[in-house]
Every structure is written in C-alpha cells, then in structure tokens.
Amino acid sequence: MGAIISLLFGLFGLAFFVLIIGGVWKVFTKAGKPGWAAIIPVYNLIVLLEIGGKPLWWIVLFFIPIVQIVMFILVGIAVAEKFGKGAGFGVGLALLGFIFYPILGFGDATYQGDQAAPPQL
After folding, report:
1. Is the distance from CB of 120 to CB of 38 less than 8 angstroms?
2. How far apart are CA 103 and CA 98, in angstroms?
C-alpha cells in the first residue's frame, strides 16, 4: 500500500513540475526567447531579466539572501507589465509562480516588448 501511495505522490509531483516548466517555457517563447532556457538554472533568471527589461547586472542581487525576495518581486512585476498585466499579477508571479506562470504562458496574454502597458483600472 505504501508503494502505491509513493507512486501516486511521485506522479503528482512530476505532473506539477511539468506544468510549471511548461508555463515558463511558453512565457519565454511568447517573448521571443528560447523555451529551453526555462530549464537551465541561472540562465533562466538572465532571460527573465531580459524579458522584463532590467539590467543584466541584477543577476548578482539574486544571490544575496533576503534581497533575492525583493528581486523576484521586482522582476515579476516587470515581466507582468511586459505582458500587459498589473503589479498584482507580477507579485503573483514572484510568490505563486506555480500558478501564475502557467496562466501567463497558456493564457491569451501577448508579449508587448518595449510598449507601455495599458493602464489598469
């Protein structure tokens, strides 16, 4: 019985992981970046900085404890704005990425690049 439960948890975990990676992969491809970058540690942060229009030297700040939390929020907001979403969605990307990246990737949001995001009401 324990083996079956372990197998079910393993399959659930694998499906959860694939959903998250698929969502980030789709966000990257919508922004014109290579989707495979979603599975490469550190490089995926560099690609997120490029998508969000932030300077690449910010990558250093991701390796400072506590500061990295602020950085994930700032980059999440920047990425959300590039897709026409508000700051609340960006905070969701940072704190609940396993929910918000698949929504952004598989949803109808389009990458707007350097265009200004429309005002949120």
Report:
1. no
2. 9
Q: What is the pLDDT of residue 115?
A: 63
Residue with token string 């920047």: 78
- Mean pLDDT for 72-81 is 96
For residue 17, is it within any domain? Answer: yes
Which pTM does this prediction carry?
0.85
CA 99 → CA 37, 88, 91, 96, distances in Å?
19, 13, 12, 6
In a domain, 113, yes or no: no
AA identity, residue 113: G
- Predicted local confidence at residue 2, as pLDDT: 80
Q: What is the mean pLDDT of residues 36-64?
A: 95
Q: Which domain holds residue 50?
A: 2-106
